[in-house]
Amino acid sequence: MTARMTVTTPSLPDTLTMIFDGSGNAQPLDADAFAAWSPSGTDGQFAWQHLRLEGEGTVALLRTAGLDEFVIDALMAGETRPRCTVHGDGVILNLRGVNLFEGQPPEDMISVRLWLTETKIIGVWRRPLDAVADMLAAIDRGQAPKSPGDFVARLALRLADRAEPAITDLNERVDDLEELLLEPNAEISRAELAAIRRSSIVLRRYLVPQRDALTTLEIEDLPWLQPHDRSRLREASERIYRIGEDLAAVRERVQIIHEQLMDERAERMNSRMLVLSVVSAVFLPLGLVAGVLGINVGGIPGADDPNAFWIVCVLLVALGGVLLLVARWLGMFR
Q1: Which sequence spans correspond to the domains of the chain?
Q2: What is the dihedral of CA 140, 46, 76, 210, to 10 degrees?
Q3: d(CA 137, CA 211)
Q4: Domain 15-263 in CATH: superfamily?
């Protein structure tokens, strides 16, 4: 079987705060200065603060930033599903990324919770997300997002990029099983089939709502979303849609393999039952004759003839041959 692609868990500090100048550059900012920060002029500046859910002072920093309890509860929720909710002058956006970390199932998806406004982005993470690490690597290369909309669009595309290897791996595993199915007497693990099917179902269960969340954000009347941002959000949404279709195809292919296994097992069972039926049909009359001749009463034909045993054996063989011909004529060997 094909090995699943894994990555090294990215390392993130409990608090990460940066200022973007709107032209592709970024610089760090003290976490305590984030709440009081405001853009200078109209040059497209915006700030991003990324906080660890269990980090000390996370809730205090969220309150200091002026977020109300509804937004804080959404960002600090223990379990989340992809969603997009406009609240006041901002947007609550929850997205999920495929888990590619070594030793962990891809369907154990990692959430990223965002609060978006025209000049500020606040994110909360429970586990490091590889797509965020990709964003930081791009920032280090001088390819920082140029607006909050650009930030979200790039993150959504990164999430789709990171999901595709996991889907490719599922397809390759199904390909291996289909090739194995062509071999005679192949043994295919039903546990492997169940694992692939479960992964495809769980991944699709989270990715389909993620597409809806991105589509909702794209069509919202938000002044800080530029046409270019909406176009990239649409592209991310379409890519997630294609991934969802691939996952549905994986699930259907696994179902077909399972049905083929059940058909082959039923065919083998029918063949064995046919052999038993023929044996029973042949030996039941023979057993009846032998039983009648073996009863311990007087008058049994040939009881005093020394050749009677061999005569009976020949008759039984002949009767068995006739019964086999009758079974063949009835189509029991087809």
Answers
A1: 15-263, 294-329
A2: -80
A3: 25
A4: CorA soluble domain-like (3.30.460.20)
